[in-house]
User: What shape does this take?
Amino acid sequence: MLILGIDPGIGRMGWGIITIENSKLKIVNSGCIETSSKLPVPERLLKIHKTLKELIEEHKPDALAVEELFFNTNAKTAFVVGQARGVVLLLGAQFNLKIGIYTPLQVKMALTGYGRAEKTQMGKMVKTLLNLKEVPKPDDTADALAVALTHAFSYKKHFK
Assistant: This one.
C-alpha cells in the first residue's frame, strides 16, 4: 500500500510517500512544494494542484493522509491554508484515493504516544520509524511523513 501524506500549507506544503510492504514501512519519496507570497493566491493554488497531480500520477498512491488544520490566531492565514487543503482533498477525490484526515494531536499520539510532543521528538520518530539517516527537512516534509505514518498505523488497526 502506498500512502501520500500531506502537511497543508500555502507557502510550503510538505508531502511524503511511504509504502507498507510485509508490515514494514519504507519511504518512497518526499519533498516540499513552495509558492511565493508575491504570487496571487489562485496562482499559488494552481502550482500546488499541478505539482500534487503530477506526484499522484507518477506514484499512484492508494491513500491520501492529510493533517487537519489548527489555527488559533490568524484567521486570514487559516482561510488561505484551508483553500490549499481543499485543493489536496479535491485531488484525492478525483483520483479515488482513500482519504484519512488526522488532527495534530492524533499524529503526535500515533508516533510518540504523547499528544504534546515537540517538533524535534516528532522528527526523530519519523527518522527512526522509516530508518532514515537524518530527520527530513524542512519540518513540513517531516510532518507530512508523520501524517502518512499515522495513516499506516490507522490502516492496520481499522481498515484490514
Summary: The chain has one domain: 2-158. The chain has five helices and five strands.
